[in-house]
Structures are given as C-alpha cells and as structure tokens.
Amino acid sequence: MAEGDRWLTLPKVNLHHHLEGAVRLETFLEYAVAYKLPIPVRTLPEAAAYLQVSDQDQSLADFLVKVDRSLEISKYPGVLERMAFEAVEDSYRQNVHYLEIRFGPWLHVTEARPLEGVIEEVLQGMARACRLYPITARLIVCALRQHAPEKNLALVTAAAKYRDHGVVGFDIAGDEAAYPADIFVEAFKLAKAAGLGITVHAGEVGEGSRVLEAIKLLGADRIGHGIQIADHPALVEQVKAAGVTLEVCPTSNVHTRSVPNLASHPIRRLFDQGVRISLGDDDPTTSGITISSEYQLLRERFAFTPAEIAQVVLAGAQAAFLPQDQKEHLAAELRQKLDSWLQSEA
Ligand SMILES: [Zn+2]
C-alpha cells in the first residue's frame, strides 16, 4: 500500500478545522478570476502563494493574514455555502467520520447578509454534503477576542437559535495576551446555558495559564491547542483533573511559531502524561496539509504506535459536542473500524 493510502484508510475524527483556512485553492482561484479581484491570483500556483504560509511568515499574526484572505471571496453570494460543502466533502475524502467545522460568523457579515444569514449559509452547505456522503458534521461558531463584548453576546444569541440545526459549540480565538478571559464570561455563560459545547483557543502562543483561565472562567470542555501547559506539571495535572481534551494541531503550531519546530512539539509528552489529546488540522489550506498527513506525523515524527493513534481518534469521538447517545454510537462505530485498521497495520 502506498504510504499516503495507508493514512487515508485510518478512520478519523477532526474537531479543529477552520472554514476560513480550508478553502480549496481551485475555488479561490475560480472566484478571484470571475470577480476580477485586484489580487495577484490568476493561476493555481499563484493561489497557493497567496493563501499558504511561506518562510517569510514569522508569527501567528502573519499566519492569520493568510487565513483571512479567504474573506475576499466569501462575501459573494453562495460562496460560503460552497466552502462549507467542500470542507465536508474534502473531509469525507480524508476518511473523516466525524467533523466539527468552526468559523467566525461576524467576519462574513455584509449589508446584504446579516449574522443569521451567514450561519444559515454555512449550515446549508454542510447539510448538502452530509446528505451526499456518509459523514457527520457539526458547526462551532467562533467569537473573536478583539471584538466588543456586545458583538460576542449577539453571536451567542444567534448561535443558540441553531442549536437543533447543527450548531453545537462556541469558541473564541484571537490575541490571548491582549484580551484576557474575564471580559468574555457573560457570553460563555449564555452559551453554556444554551447547551452549546465550549472550546477556547488558549495556550497556543499565549501562556499556559490561559488554559486554566479558560477552564475555570469560561467553562471550557475542550481547549484549542493548549500546548503551552506542557512545561508546567501543575497545569497538566489540573487539565487532567478537569477531564478537558486538547485539540492539538502540530503543523499549525510550527507555522504560527507557537513552537520552533516539530521536533520540539510537546504532543508526545502531553500524551504520555495522560492528557486527553485529539488531533486537528486547524487551517489545512494555509498550512498545505490534510488531517491524514497530521496523523501520519503522529506515527513518523512522534513515534505513536498504531494503537496509540487509535486512542487519539477515539479521544476525539469522546470529546465530540454530540448528545451522549450519539457520541456512544460514534465511538462504537469507530472502535469497530479502528480494529480492522489495526489488524491491517499488524
Ligand atoms: Zn484554531
């Protein structure tokens, strides 16, 4: 079996996947040409150069500039629906069984398309793909730390309306150092009361202590990244005691300079210390990766055994923002598929 196929056959879960960072290069190119956008994108290699990180990008801020470039097409009618459809379709092709897509609705609001319309467009695209392919996909809405608290409150209220139509979680991303958690407490309380799962980008480039703050103040069930706790045994113990799962995205962490290189990434150490670890691809287009290639890294760069890799997939299923019965059903289905995968690996 070719090495690439081997990682395609692994049944997967992906809990950390940004819609804005997952736009297909072909789709971006198509709209850049159709709308004659004043950007240097008229060929596929130019689209790649425009959307993907390069050696010149030196920080999370540089990385986010590339991610946000997808906003240059998403404002046009129907594009968000298509991006959402294609994100699910691409995940199905990577043998993802359960996917949670996240996106920042406020970033896509235009005069012609209010907040609710933005969320509905994405849900429609996801639903269209889920009717076509055997994959389960749910949506997380992302608040942004730099937005005014009222905007984040309005986002929770809008998200809660779609609780029974595919929105399952609430997240916050943005500059951890400049905007500490306490100003977001009210929004997260509302989200929890509405029955949404809580995940928080914390301990990515910011201090490990931000992770604890997210758990204690914002009620985080999961943490986006959280890798900066690795050098603080007390934090590691508290995260374990809280039963919180980290959504770890190794390649993205290198690209945002959260870690200097893959060799120094703490995923193996965190796993060995008993922290619940799930794997995500964060912004696959920006990073030029797939969720399959991230799982491949677990084996080849971090020496996870096939059984340990299966454990990571299951940890994702157990941390899914699904009702208990659906979660158990997903885990049971994955256990069976992982058993056959492990046999093929033996
Ligand atoms: Zn992220």
Structure description:
This protein has 346 residues and is an alpha/beta fold. The chain has one domain: Metal-dependent hydrolases (TIM Barrel). It contains 17 helices and eight strands. The protein has helices at residues 3-9, 25-34, 44-51, 60-68, 71-74, 79-93, 115-132, 149-161, 185-193, 209-218, 233-241, 250-255, 267-272, 284-287, 291-300, 306-318, 324-345, and strands spanning 12-18, 96-103, 136-144, 167-173, 197-202, 222-225, 245-248, 276-279. An eight-stranded parallel sheet has the order 1-2-3-4-5-6-7-8. Helix 2 (25-34) crosses helix 3, helix 8 packs parallel to helix 9 (185-193) and helix 16 packs antiparallel against helix 17 (324-345). The protein is globular and about 50 Å long. The model has no long low-confidence stretch (mean pLDDT 95). The site of zinc ion has 6 residues, from strand 1.
Short description:
By secondary structure, the chain is of the alpha/beta class.
Could you describe the largest sheet, including whether it forms a barrel? Answer: 8 strands, parallel
Q: In order across it, which strands form the biggest sheet? A: 1-2-3-4-5-6-7-8
> Quick one: CATH class?
Alpha Beta
Query: At CATH's second level, what is the architecture?
Result: Alpha-Beta Barrel
Give the oligomeric state of the chains in this entry, treating copies of one chain as homo and distinct chains as hetero. Answer: single chain
Q: Unreliable segments (pLDDT under 50, ≥5 consecutive)? A: none
Query: Which percent range describes the beta-strand content?
Result: 5-15%
Give the CATH superfamily.
Metal-dependent hydrolases
Number of strands: 8
The backbone outline, from C-alpha atoms, is globular
Named once each, the bound ligands are: zinc ion
What gyration radius follows from the Cα positions, in whole Å? 19 Å
Distance between the termini: 14 Å
Quickly count the helices: 17
Helix content: 40-55%
Written as H for each helix and E for each strand, in order along the chain, the element string is: HEHHHHHEHEHEHEHEHEHHEHHHH
Whole-number mean pLDDT: 95
